[in-house]
Amino acid sequence: MNYNDFLNSKKEKRISKGIEVEEDDLNSVLFDYQKAIVKKALETKRFCLFESCGMGKTLQQLEWAYQVYKHINKPVLILAPLGVTVQTAYEEAPKLGYEVNIIKDNHVTDGINIINYEQLENIDTSVFGGVVLDESSILKNFTGKVRTRLTKAFENTEYKLCCTATPAPNDLMELLNHADFLRITTTAKALATYFINDMKTGQYRLKGHATKDFYRWCCNWSINIESPQDLGYKADYYVLPELHEKNITIEIDQIDYNFENGFFREIGTSATAFHKEKHRTADARAKKCAEIAAKDDEQYLIWCDTNEESSLLKKYIPEAVEVRGSDKSSFKEQSALDFKNGKIRVLISKPKIFGYGMNFQNCHNVIFCGLTYSYENYYQSLRRIYRFGQKKDVYSYIVLGSTELHILETINKKKKVQEELKNKMDISTKEIQLLHFKGEEMKKVDYSQRIELPQFI
To answer: Cβ contacts of residue 105 below 8 Å, gap of 6+?
Structure first.
């Protein structure tokens, strides 16, 4: 083996080809960019849709699932968060003219089937020829039990599709875990190839010279876009309304009447101090949220993080419907449906229940009764209503105690880092994706200018 052969042996092998289809043969309901993505995903066989909220991932995954079933004649499974299963089967699938079976009592039908992640252990996954992970950010945890169980359950499944909002570029491990689930490569091998262990931070970071190669590799098995324009398609119709964000601060007394730590309370940032302060400010925050929701007759979606906050919100907004994790699945699904249909004016819930995958464009007012340090939870929860298809300006209210402003500062810092790193990521991926989908190279801007030097020089 010569040196060139040795280098070639180290390159990642391209994924074997899957199903060849023409864009004109795909469902006419899809936009042109959606057809192009589905075509690419089918040809690649194992693929990821990293698309911004509202880009129509559900319609794309349904068309992909239908085409896989049509060509290999084996059932296809969609795994989705609770509540999204009903939304996909009864709201999204009919748009394409397809039927989706919600699996009950392990009853699998030919065609497209769907079930929520919590029910995975109750079905025989070996009967499916294809699988879709809706909201596949569930793979984020490198050592998580759910990720390990999913990877093992579909280890031998021929066709795989992962769908989630654009992954955080500062959390590249999420990309590697997706590649591992798809069986493109192992996480360990990808780390060794493209990353270096930064001894100062104790974290992995991309090798400087490998950055372009890493994103080129990712583009072989994924698409990463925030607008159809990223693939060279017109996006005149893809315009979001105005987002009006209002931060409401409630003054909280910092005097320590117990004099445990002096005259003033010490506001800490540890997990214990964080929960203690949220408990202290919960009642005031809930009252302010109720005041906002009572100023008109419009619908409001209120997010909270603890059962205490949820109970207080219900206390001050008696007409509201409160959905907790302990509630029955049927109640959660019916509550989401009633809110969409306008039967519920105020819905109270948590990001881990309805914050991922749900479409609530019927509402254009959202209230956060406090925040956690998770920027992803905040972003996803906001995007349940601020997404493509929203017809009205969106009003977002963040209600915090004056002693909790450091949480908002942390969220804003993460948002800034996200935007900065996303821009760097775009430089590496857009050109490659344009070549993959349109056969075009991005026009490079010539920044050179002719400079006339003074005669004395």
So the answer is: none
